[in-house]
Amino acid sequence: MIRAVLIDNEPLALHYFQNKLQNFQQIEVVQTFTSVKLFLNNLPSMEFEVIFLEIKLDELNGLEVADIIKTDRPHVSVIFITSYRDFAIQAYEVGGLDYLLKPISLARLEKTVLRIEHEFSMQQLTQQASNTVLNVQCFDQFAVYSNNSLVSFKTEKTKELFSYFILHPNMPIHRDYLIEILWPNLDYVRAKSNLHTALSYLRKTLTNIGYSNCIIFSNKYYIFEKPNIMCDLYDFQQFYSDFSKLESPPIFLINQCLTIYKNGLLVYDDYSWATTYKDKLYKSYIDLLDKGFQATVLTDTETAIDYLNTLLAYDPYNEQKLEYYLQVLMNAGHHKQAHKILLAYEQKLKEDLALSPSPNLKEISKKLFQNK
After folding, report:
1. pTM over 0.90
2. Residues 222-244: pLDDT tens digits?
3. What start-end ranges are recorded for coiled-coil regions in this protein (predicted)?
């Protein structure tokens, strides 16, 4: 049995609709209200799975009441009943399951009840799958796995929208900003429609794998409330945070971060909005390599050279950095390794740019040849 609450400030309309629902044995009306204030006073003590809600109410409008309900009980299905056509978009934005126009026919109400039953069944499945952990991969190619199976998104924009939420969890994001970054070349009305469609697809996909109600809409802002998921980006951020707090971070912590980073964030996903995020992580990656080089240059030359070669591969023509690293190697007594790296740089500079090293590097070269 699915327990229902009804709110309408017109007693006759409320009684009429309650009689309509008696045609459906799977719905049990547990309480009715003509006052929003009275409903909110009773809310903490009530248990229900669905609420039928008029848009035009006295104290608060139905959209505001729905927002309160979805914040307090995100699993509750909200069905709007009204004579006004103009609030449909706002109704779905706050998480409404259906939008019924008065007068409501029995046939139309039957379709709504079927939706409620489906939503209720999905809620039951979600509870059963509460131990399911979603695995999200952000480095290299963006991919999502549920029970080791790749999750398929209905459209590329749905996938991109989810990747944006993953990169910005628990952060209020204005609806118009999402429209601007995802559909910059479309007119506002069409882009807004596309956003609603993508959100609908995404919510359905997440619900089907046990993660319903993690996208909240309130006052034109969306919030992705980060559920219990595994994510390589979150692991990297946590390890790097731990690393940054230590004056002399252990090598294993540095290597953990480097292993996760791989080739970079969203390498195969050309999302222009992710550029700043990628740059920030890239700087963190370079910092890790630099600290790894500094930590091993006196104790593990081979590992230090591996770090250094990776650093130089990411910034091959930066002579100022190269001079610094060569000096560190020379101060540590690794003249042979420094000479080898300098020769490789001179060769690359000549082949790629037809240039010669700077006077400073030539001076370092002379010192290295003397110690060779």
Report:
1. no
2. 999 988 888 999 999 988 888 88
3. none
